[in-house]
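User: Some background: our group keeps a shared notebook of sequences we're curious about, and every so often someone picks one and asks for a predicted structure to add to the entry. Today it's my turn. The entry only has the sequence so far, pasted here. Could you supply the structure so I can complete it?
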Amino acid sequence: MFVADRVDPAELGDAPTTSAEAERVFAALERTLQKNQLEFRDVVKTRLFYALRSDYPEMNQVRGPLFRSRFSDGGFPAATGTITGGRGGVRPHFELEVIAHPDKRAFNATGVIQEWNGVRPPFSHANIAGGVLFVSGQGAFNDKGELATADPIGQTVATLPVLSKILDVAGCERDDILTLTAYLTPPAIAHREAVVAEIEAYLRPRSQGALPIFTVIAVKELAFPGMEVEIELCARTPQANGSSRGASTKTVATGPAQATCHEGILFARSEVGRNKDLKACFDLSLSALRTALAGLDTGMPDIKMITVWFSPARDRAQIERLAKQAFSPDVGLTLAPMPDSETGTVILEAFGSVG
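Assistant: Of course. Here's the predicted structure to add to the notebook entry:
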């Protein structure tokens, strides 16, 4: 199940606080889960989009006690958080995307940071559900919760072995990676070519099959000061019966879009940029996404959740109009602005289920 939840800005009042908003968002999420015969403990992965870095600790004042009560066994979801800036008009302080599954297993990996300043946040390094490993966003932290370096390239190099440690615990290999997403702040974007080269070198030594879906997202900031690079991934997990992990995986790449389906779980992305006409970017990205999905013998009705990353941020109203025209009202929709660039960019991230 895929859920995208955000509080309606019209319900927030004149001067909403992040904590009050968080209470409403998580209450709405619980109602949605219940309507789908799911519980809070079934949440596999969360992705949070903050307007300001200060929204992160305020949100945690609500999330911490709530998650510790709902996940009393410590099986917290995997999580990723980014600061994307305001959302125009009366902005929500944050938006929330959720993946939930009735049969999941959460775990942490030895040698990977679990506490910051003596506090263990309510998220796990990874969750396994539906034959897929969902890994939390990781950074270049040492075991004391300190960043290994301030250099974005160095942070990238230091983060990749962290991902490998988590893959090892799950019994996965680099060949099993289905999707990898790197969130880069402006200092990291300034070194984008070198950062991408490091990640591609990490992904390249594969024994078989196509490279995974690899997406680079420009963000305003990340949740921890000094953190310039955050990387998350999804991977296929070993089958209980020992059958080939690749047997049920199919990947299609067509122009600016890639799509992959594993065990009925669909991941797809499409990116079009360097065009001053943002509508043209959106239309081209959407067309490429449809073509990639068709290559998997699936289509738009199988999309359950869509994230639209876009730049420039001032064109939010236009992007929102285009997205609502393109996708069913039943599809969870998140609009995430990226730092402004000289030309328009649209990245579509789609998640769904087939069969």
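Suggested note for the entry: The mean pLDDT is 89. The first strand starts at residue 2 and ends at 5.
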